[in-house]
Amino acid sequence: MESSNSSLKHVFDSYNGTAKTMEGKNFVKLAKDCKIIDKKLTATDVDLIFAKIKDKSERKITYAQFEKGLEFFAEKKGCTPADIVEKILATGGPQFSGTQADHVKFHDDKSLYTGVYAQGGPTNVDQINPTVTFGSAPHNDEEEEKVPTKRMAQMSVNNNPAGSLKEVFEGFTGGAAEMDGKTFAKMSKDTKILDKALTATDIDLIFAKVKDKAARKINYAQFQKGIEECATKKKITFEQLEEKILAVGGPVFTGTKTDKVKFHDDKSLYTGVYAQGGPSTIDAGNGMISDISQLCDRSDANVRGVKKH
Q1: Strand 152-157 and strand 253-258: pairing?
Q2: Is-above-0.85 flag for pTM?
């Protein structure tokens, strides 16, 4: 069997994907796909051959070991290696099987649909005229009605440019004299100094380099040293990097802003009890309950407990 057989190598590669070596399960799959397994060469025999040809501490085999395995197949089946190779090449590669659904006349032929299904099927959204209004609320054709959604609009709070690195340092530390690694990383993200040359991992390594050995925070002098290291990593001057940091000014905070909801925000559209200020747990005219005698009041009242006088 010639090891230069490119077609056989192609089949070998097709079972391994991007890997250059073959696992035991793929070795067995190849044997099954190519219908090499029979009474003379069982699936157990294939597993034993794989264990025999692989290196002792390895879990995969190389192409050369794969060729050796095919020789053992031929020996076990009582044929020549060329017969085994011919059978493998005839298969060409991995075989995948699945289940194909039967043809169902009344499902597949849409011309046979009746009732609501003939119109496209049921829907859980009523087809309501969009101009319908409810209650006494006026309708404004010019303004599109908005409904509450879970979608939130992103907003950010930015700062004015800073006058010095010291101001930036204190802005991120909240006035504290030291800065931790998390804040140093946030500073690098907020000021947009990260790129392919200076990654988030580089920032962590620089922080570890400039801080004292047993410390978990850095002071302003060490912060300046860290900025110098960042500039070196980006292959720009300290002044150029400083200018970029000062332009941001301080920490950038992002949050969410809710969408405008017409029937919630515009109180002139309120109807019913909400137009009068909304429901209350205290009945008008009765005031707050101040003692137990009011709880035991048995005078005439309506079904809601409001006195009739």
Answers
A1: antiparallel
A2: no
